Structure formats: C-alpha cells, structure tokens
What we know:
Radius of gyration: 17 Å
Oligomer: single chain
Distance between the termini: 30 Å
Amino acid sequence: MKLTDYMPVYRLRLRTERLELRLPDLDDLVALADQAAAGVHDPDFMPFLTPWTECEPIERGRRTLQHQMSVIAGISPERWMLPLVTVLDGEIVGMQEVGAADVKATREAHTGSWLGRAHHGKGIGTEMRAAVLDFVFNGLGADYALSASFEGNGPSEGVSRKLGYKADGIDHKVLNGVRRQDNRWRLSREDWEAHRKHEVAIEGLDAEVLAALGLGESEE
C-alpha cells in the first residue's frame, strides 16, 4: 500500500505556467519551515489572526511543521483544509490553503496563503491563488470562493481585486488586545471566469479524492 491509498488527496496536483501545488510530505514540510524561519511578512504589519510568526526563527519553523501536520491529519469529508505547498523551479516558496465545510451543500470554499519574503513581488501570490480558484470552480464545482485580509494588507487585497473578488463586508477581530478590521472578499463563478488569466492543470482529482472532500456520489 502507498500513502495515496490511505489518503487519496495526496494524488492531487495543481500546475500553472510556473508553479506546482501539492500536499506536502515530510521533506516538503522541512523546506516550508525553512521559508517560515526566514520570514514571511514585514515585521511592522501582522497579517495573521493568530500571530504565529512572533517568535524566533527556529520556533516559526517548528510551529509551521506542527500546524501543517495537524491540518492534514484533520482532513475529513465534512470539514477540510488542504495546505498545499507552492513549488517554483523545484523550490518550495510558500503555501496556499484551500478549505471548506459541507462543501456539497454550501458550494463555496475559502483560501489563505503566505510566501517567503524573498519571493514577494513576483506575481507568485496571484498565480498560486489562481491555481486553487480553478480547483474550487472547475474541480469542485463550487459557486463562490471566499477570502479575507486585515485592513492595510495591500498585497493580499491587490490579489483579490485582480482576480475579480468583490468586497463582502467586514468583521472586527482582536489581535494582541487591539481591534483590527478584517475585510471579507467573495468571488462568484461569473467574476472568476471574467478575470481568469492563468491556465491551470488539475491532476489526480478522481472519485476517491472527491469523496474524501465530501463530494462523493449519494447512495440511493
């Protein structure tokens, strides 16, 4: 037996012009931890609700390893998150999450991501989000994709607007005792199609993978 026999979602690959996105094995997780340890954002702006980057580099890497392993272990048909590593020219440069709860009924999924700081400003964030959007709409047959970004996170907001998202209201979160405005974004299938610029190949999305993500055939 192989890993993909027990966890079919490991068969999934998303490919764009430059990138490959996949679930990480242990070696991939170490490479991802290295990117986290080197830094993922401007230290003057915290983009995450859980401030997991506020620690020494070795601890950032350790937190990355532990969190991603727990997320993968928690995948179920009812609620799942796929923490896909982003690979550019053979190097893991960041990660792109896509997740949903009761996706067969809601027909929507949400995304989140980060890149190593050395890879910012190269269009990678847009391209990797485009990859999972193709997966959400073409692969899963969803109607909407959701995202969110703290007020002042210009790069994340720029990616959302570039890909066709529309403002979907605000939430208020408390981070380190301070209220922060979290801007919600919603992308419809129609707006995604109108702004689609990247060709994406989805590999390994078979009936077993769909069933693992809550989209199996209903029993009569």
